[in-house]
Amino acid sequence: MNNSSFFKAVPALLWQFLFFYIPLLFVVVLSFTDGTTSGFTLKNYALLFDSVYGSIVLRSLILAFLTATLCLLIGYPLAYFIALKKRSLKNVFLFFIILPFWTNLLVLTYAWFFILDRDGLLNSLLMNIGVINEPLALINNFFAIMIVMFYCYLPFMIMPLFSVLEKFDLNLIEASKDLGANQWQTLWNVIIPITMPGIKAGFLLVFVPAFGEFVIPLLVGGDKYMFVGTLISHYFLIGQNKFAGSAFTVLSSCVLFVVVFFVSIFVQKLFPSHREIRETEL
Q1: Cβ(246)–Cβ(27) under 8 Å?
Q2: Alpha-carbon gap, residue 33 to 244, rounded angstroms
Q3: Would you list the domain boundaries of the chain?
């Protein structure tokens, strides 16, 4: 790295240091204090070793995993279609994909009330066409949380996938067909391994923020479910217990890092890179 590149990176590094590492350090320090005793204490962490907190973390992991998986299952075909099938119209499709980013998250979330409400658009449509006889309970439940989170996080999955698929060499598909592979074999053994960096990036971009999401579960989930993000916001904003909130933040973050680490290892074993395959053969 030359001197000009270093100085260009300084503002980004300074921003990251001031607004990420220093606040994170404050949270870690607060997690080991209680405001009454001098020095460090583990009392905040001792309170968290309860099945209730474990179930909240597990519920948040399940929600994040389901959201990321659903976004991957829907986002991969869409990114493939835009990048490889409709290259002439890719700018139009990308415009509509990033359009939700121009709208505030609260506005997007509240808009779903008019769709999923008892007298909303979806229930009215289903009743008018005769599918149901009475309105369904589509709001204030896990289903509503999943739908809204899928809608809000889908662009975070499509964009990394599109950036990788756009550079994909279509000659590899033709070569796979010439060697006798069918469509599923080509997808599993050629396309997915090559586009795995985009899959990993998209999955992490959805999984990590979905794990700590608190706005969407709070607004469309009602008071039935407690997740990591909602509990942390409750500690800091309502309970005014920044010490327990910091401890739970640190503990849940550690759980998230461990889960992401093992998922990365599993994916690497399931879809080894071409370099690893070549080294194994040698």
Answers
A1: yes
A2: 9
A3: 43-281
